[in-house]
Amino acid sequence: MSTWRRKGLELFYDIRFSFVGKDDTVYSLIFELRRRVIKSHLNNDNVDLDKIYNFAEWCFYQYRRSNYLNNAICVGFYEHLVDNEITRREIPYRVKPDIFESVKTLFEWMLRKNKGLYEELVEEYNRINNTDFVN
Fold it and tell me: Cβ contacts of residue 127 below 8 Å, gap of 6+?
């Protein structure tokens, strides 16, 4: 069994049937987590949010072992955090600076039709995290 699947089962056993099939990939789990992260933010479920964001970080940091997992979490999860206002507002609090730096071009691309939202996100991120990313 793949490591991502084992980790997913450990953290998200309640949705196991969405990603344990032989044809399921890490994208199957990531798709479920994209929906779940919104619901967890709405419910202020910090335990679940910690699990989701920790799994995302784990995938991101696998780039030395598996570019596949890193790419999957960047394009399947992180870039979609800007799709919803509640997750977009939480980026400065939930996404580490090195990850933000790596995915901010994805945020910019996703918000290309509303450049003001992207600029606002970067400014807020910088203010909260004491960083100096340029928009």
Answer: 92
Pairwise CA distance, residues 24 & 119, whole Å: 36
Half-sphere exposure of 75 (CA within 13 A, CB side): 7
Q: How many residues does the chain have?
A: 135
Minimal CA–CA distance to 26: which of 11, 48, 42? 11
In eight-state DSSP terms, residue 18 is G
Query: pLDDT, tens digit, for every residue of 78-108?
Result: 999 999 999 999 999 999 999 999 999 999 9
For 111, the 3-state DSSP assignment is coil
Please give the span between the terminal C-alpha atoms of the chain, in angstroms, as a whole number.
41
55 CB neighbour count, 10 Å cutoff: 21
